[in-house]
């Protein structure tokens, strides 16, 4: 005899659907998270909701490097302790977090917010390349480190940037091949990232 399905509250069902839209969260995980939040004290749930709203309302892009920040310019760009002659180019803001965690790099950053991908309809004008070139023009930058992801889109973007930057007389380097092809920076471990930065090579 077939059992009738257990009815799910509309609110829980809606929350599950929204959580399921998050990257890396499947239907089962979304359901577990929804029921976890249901059991969580109301005050703690409000803190989470406030944190999510705060991120959306207070976070902006740094006008210099385009990292996510709540102050413009961001704390990295305005720091006197950083090496302003080096710029590390990454695809996404979370890549900066991964590199900063190694504590080996002390220069500046530039976030492209994507990579060139004709198959996905992402061209050179869809990411922050124009802003990068304007930033480099007449600057004191002596080295640009290409830290795009080691996949097809990342390599294509790095090649394009190399062609644009070299005529400016700026040294262009690429993270060492300690990073396996297809690896995304945010998932690489600290040791691998440290070796990649220290062993960076001329592009």
Give structural notes:
The chain starts with 9 loop residues before the first helix and ends with a strand. It folds into 2 domains: 10-58, Helicase, Ruva Protein, domain 3 (Orthogonal Bundle), CATH 1.10.8; 68-202, Dna Topoisomerase Vi A Subunit, Chain: A, domain 2 (3-Layer(aba) Sandwich), CATH 3.40.1360.10. The chain is of the alpha/beta class and 203 residues long. It has 7 helices and 7 strands, in the order αααβββαβαβαβαβ. The longest helix is centred in the first third of the chain and has 17 residues, at 42-58. The protein is 40% helix and 13% strand. The chain has a 5-stranded mixed β-sheet with strand order 4-3-5-6-7. The protein has helices at 10-19, 27-39, 42-58, 93-102, 129-136, 152-165, 190-198, and strands spanning 60-61, 68-69, 83-90, 107-111, 143-146, 171-174, 201-202. Helix 1 (10-19) packs across helix 2 and helix 4 crosses helix 7.
Short summary:
The protein is α/β, with parallel strands linked by helices and 203 residues long. It is 40% helix and 13% strand.
Notable traits:
single chain; about 200 residues; alpha/beta; Helicase, Ruva Protein, domain 3; Dna Topoisomerase Vi A Subunit, Chain: A, domain 2; 2 domains; five-stranded mixed beta sheet; about 15% strand
